[in-house]
Amino acid sequence: MEEFSVHDSLLGKEAVIPERYDPSLLFRIPRSENRLRYDLKDTCLPFTGVDVWNCYEFSFLTKFGLPVSRVMKVIYPASSPFIVESKSLKLYLNSFNMERFDETVSGSLQKVKGIITADLSKLLQTKVSVCFFDKNTEEAHPFKDINDIEHYVSASSLERIRFEHYKETPDLLAGILTDIQREYAFTTDLLRSNCRVTNQPDWGDLFVKMQTQYEIDFVSVIQYLVSFRKENHFHEEVVEMIYKRFWDTFKPSRLTVAAMYTRRGGIDINPIRCSCEADIEEAFVSLDKRLGKTLRQ
Predict the structure, then answer these.
(1) What are the percentages of helix, strand and coil residues in the chain, rounded to 5?
(2) Which one of 51, 202, 205, 268 is the catalytic residue?
(3) Cα(90)–Cα(52) distance, rounded to whole angstroms?
């Protein structure tokens, strides 16, 4: 589990599917690599939050060879110095496929949970939470009462907006400072960015809650979000960039930015960043409930 340049990882390269448990497949990336570009310091972050990984293709064997399949949820804090690279996690989880554990399913699940929790906590130098779900597990859906962005910009108006920027352009964001504290809550499926290494597209649903004295120009917000369309970043980085731009431009008293990305390789990644820890949606951090999927997930 050594630290390398991201270009030395298996991301975007042909890889042999492992047959036996192998923690050396895991690869980590420093969060600071991207944060430094837009003046975020790990020692004084303007947010708290977590990254939630839903892994839909995970299986292993009991001692007698019975396959056990579960959906696995992995949670770790935004304050961790590293993120896990997604392909390395996929290969690592595949290395459990033919491994045998306890005689019982419950005993095997406990052993596997302990192994994965220890490996990821060591890799990322933080506390990692791991839990498993089956078809009977209840789903928790976050942001139930949030408006689509078309609540602020009508569909007909949306079609008349001119889009000319497809690389992240924070100067597009605009608003008017007022004496009134305003609350905004919106979601949109317009977010698209690309993997920093493979250039493959990443599709996500964005969720924003904000309290600010600015009257926000939502045309500018839409133009800004669309400007990620040819931007190359990891999911966590995109959410933090959007958070920082909103934080700097609209100077909110309270802010939450989250994205729920479509799965790739059987894994979806869901980062959430909040100015107040109490605003982290329970669905993201619950160890008893699955994080309910969006339409595209």
Answers:
(1) 30, 35, 35
(2) 202
(3) 15
pLDDT of residue 106: 98
Is 195 an annotated catalytic residue? yes
Nearest to 163 by CA among 187, 190, 200: 190
Under the banding of pLDDT at 50, 70 and 90, the label for residue 110 is very high
Neighbours of 264 (CB within 10 A): 18
Distance, first Cα to last Cα, the chain: 30
Are 115 and 294 in contact by the 8 Å Cβ rule? The answer is: no
For the cut 80, the answer to whether the pLDDT of residue 10 exceeds it is no
Residue 160 burial (C-beta neighbours within 10 Å; 0-12, 13-18, 19+): exposed
At a CB cut-off of 8 Å and minimum separation 6, what does 199 contact?
232
**Does 55 participate in catalysis according to the annotation?**
no
Catalytic residue (one of 195, 205, 268, 274): 195
What pTM, to 2 d.p., does this model score?
0.93
- Label residue 45 by pLDDT band (50, 70, 90): very high
3-state secondary structure of 288: coil
157 vs 51, residue with greater confidence: 51
